[in-house]
TrEMBL record:
Ranges in coiled-coil conformation: 263-290
UniProt keywords, alphabetically: Coiled coil, Kinase, Membrane, Phosphoprotein, Transferase, Transmembrane, Transmembrane helix, Two-component regulatory system
Xref: PANTHER family: SENSOR HISTIDINE KINASE TRCS (PTHR45436:SF5), SENSOR HISTIDINE KINASE YKOH (PTHR45436)
EC number: 2.7.13.3
Segments forming domain HAMP: 223-275
Location, primary (coarse class): membrane
Protein name (Swiss-Prot/TrEMBL): histidine kinase
Histidine kinase domain boundaries: 290-506
Subcellular location: Cell membrane
Kinase as UniProt keyword: yes
Originating species: Streptomyces hoynatensis
């Protein structure tokens, strides 16, 4: 992998904050299908129970009050009719009081309070405050109509039935004749209110019972609905882990069964496609390995010839010398590409193994730079001899450092620095930290996640390069083979930093 020679570093998009912690888990649980099903069932049950209860309450309340009202009015009319037969056409105050006392006394157990009026006369069996509940509309209706009139009123938190009854005598040519005598009844409806309260309590109990039953039914329904959903989720997770042979057991013929069948069909098609891709990938890898192996012999002969030509190039004329040098450079580039392909094929085949040896890592890094003539091009910050020893594969470490430093020299800008340090982790133990930095333009942020991929080029306009495009990929494979980690990042002040972490092993 190589980096562009000129590219401005792109801005990094920060990670989108997620909902974590107990509140986040609680919020996700509240958004779950089970909760929504339970809430939906509960709402439907509550609305249905309340609606039914309210209708039943209204009908029952109306029935109770209507029956009580009819009974009271009939009793009041019968009592007044029976007692007014002996009253004169123009009753006196004494006769009015006798009438009131008689009517109230006959229904003393019911708590009747009676008022009789005739022109300016007034007789009552209760207090004046009691009959203050008689509205003007009620009095006017009694004076104008020969029929009983009633009202329901609340006073002091208690319900009362107020009845107005005009007394009539016979009928004349114009119909029924009002005598001018009117009787009024005020009676508390505590018993009826108790019935209404009992109805309300029954409605509340029925609503709560329906709500509880709905929750139970919702849980059972959610269990039945979520069982195939959980199975689908588990199968999806297993498929994501690479188990493409996972299949769901299909029950029934509903929508969830159709979903399970669709998943099985998709999984089968995906398994077939992945198998075909793996087969083609294996063929491509074998082809690359075979071609690389077959090219090594002619390349070795070509390299020997180019060595001879390089010695003769200074004595050749200009155009011929340039052609000879071009052939030599391209042959060397082709040789590096073939060697890198051979190396990658060994990683793919699982044939790459470590030849571990304990050595001085700092001295190994100095030797890597000196062997390639980079001693004057790279600034080093290495510990003194003997201060950093580890059990590693020296050849693979040389490959890692050479690829990282060479990449920085080709695509970065001086100064290029190589540093070595150690880190002690309380759980993972000691680690070697190798860092290669430069002052170049950096790597585009979009390219950073792919920087260690094979043949990836951050600059698509640069088709050719001195490198094979496999250098960083080979470096990463060698680091991973050691059980280490490799990272690439843009430095805040400009440039790029490659860091390698390798576990320290002791013999």
């Amino acid at each position: 992998m190589s980096r562009p020679a000129q590219a401005a570093p792109a801005g990094r998009a920060g990670p989108r904050p997620g909902r974590t912690g107990p509140w986040g888990r609680a919020l996700r649980a509240l958004r779950g299908l089970r909760v929504r099903l339970v809430v939906g069932f509960a709402l439907v049950a509550a609305v249905s129970a309340l609606g039914t209860g309210l209708l039943a309450f209204r009908e029952a309340r109306t029935g109770v009050l209507q029956q009580s009202q009819d009974v009271v009015i009939k009793q009041f009319r019968d009592s007044v009719d029976a007692l007014t037969r002996g009253v004169r056409a123009s009753p006196t105050q004494r006769e009015l009081q006798s009438l009131v006392d008689a009517v109230a006394g006959a229904h003393q157990s019911q708590g009747w309070q009676v008022l009789a009026t005739y022109e300016g006369l007034r007789a009552a069996s209760g207090s004046a405050e009691t009959f203050g509940r008689l509205s003007r509309e009620l009095r006017e209706a009694v004076a104008e109509r020969p029929a009983a009139v009633f009202q329901r009123v609340d006073a002091g938190g208690r319900p009362y039935l107020v009845v107005g009854l005009p007394v009539v005598y016979g009928s004349g040519r114009g119909g029924t004749v009002l005598s001018g005598l009117a009787c009024y009844l005020v009676v508390a409806q505590d018993t009826e209110q108790a019935y209404v309260t009992a109805i309300i309590a029954a409605v509340e109990h029925a609503t709560l019972s329906a709500l509880g039953g709905a929750v139970v039914l919702a849980l059972l329904a959610a269990r039945g609905v979520l069982r195939p959903v959980r199975a689908l989720r588990g199968a999806t997770r297993r498929m994501a882990e690479g188990h493409l042979d996972v299949r769901l057991t299909v029950h029934g013929s509903d929508e969830l069964a159709d979903l399970s069948r669709s998943f099985n069909d998709t999984a089968a098609a995906l398994e077939q496609s992945v198998a075909e891709l793996r087969r083609l990938e294996a063929q491509a890898r074998r082809f690359a390995a075979d071609v690389s192996h077959e090219l090594r012999t002619p390349l070795a002969a070509m390299a020997a010839v180019t060595d001879v030509l390089d010695e003769e190039a200074p004595r050749l004329d200009g155009r011929t010398g340039d052609a000879v040098r071009l052939i030599s450079e391209e042959t060397a580039r082709l040789s590096r590409l073939v060697n890198d392909l051979m190396e990658m094929s060994r990683f793919d085949a699982g044939a790459a193994v470590l030849a571990l040896d304990e050595f001085d890592v700092a001295e190994s890094l100095r030797h890597t730079l000196a062997a390639r003539g980079w001693g004057d091009l790279v600034e080093t910050r290495l510990p003194p001899p003997g201060a950093a020893r580890a059990r590693l594969d020296p050849r693979r470490l040389d490959v890692v450092v050479a690829n990282l430093v060479g990449n920085a020299l080709r695509h970065g800008a001086p100064p290029v620095r190589l540093s070595l340090g150690t880190r002690q982790d309380p759980t993972e133990g000691a680690w070697l930290i190798i860092e290669v930095t430069d002052e170049g333009p950096g790597i585009p942020e979009a390219a950073l996640p792919h920087i260690f991929e094979r043949f990836y080029k951050a600059d698509a306009t640069r088709a050719r390069s001195e490198s094979s495009g496999l250098g960083l990929a080979i470096a990463a494979e060698n680091v991973h083979l050691h059980g280490g980690r490799v990272r690439a990042a843009n430095r805040p002040g400009g440039g790029t930093a490659f860091s390698v972490e390798l576990p320290v092993r002791r013999a």
